[in-house]
Amino acid sequence: MNNKFLTALLMSILAFSSTYAVADDSDPSVINQSVDANDPCTVFLCMAGKVRGETPSECSGPNKTFFKIVKKKKGKFKPSQTFDARKAFLGNCPSADPKEVSKILSKFGKVR
Question: What is the mean pLDDT of each run of 10 residues along the chain (112 residues)?
Answer without folding.
Answer: 55 52 51 80 96 94 98 97 98 97 98 93
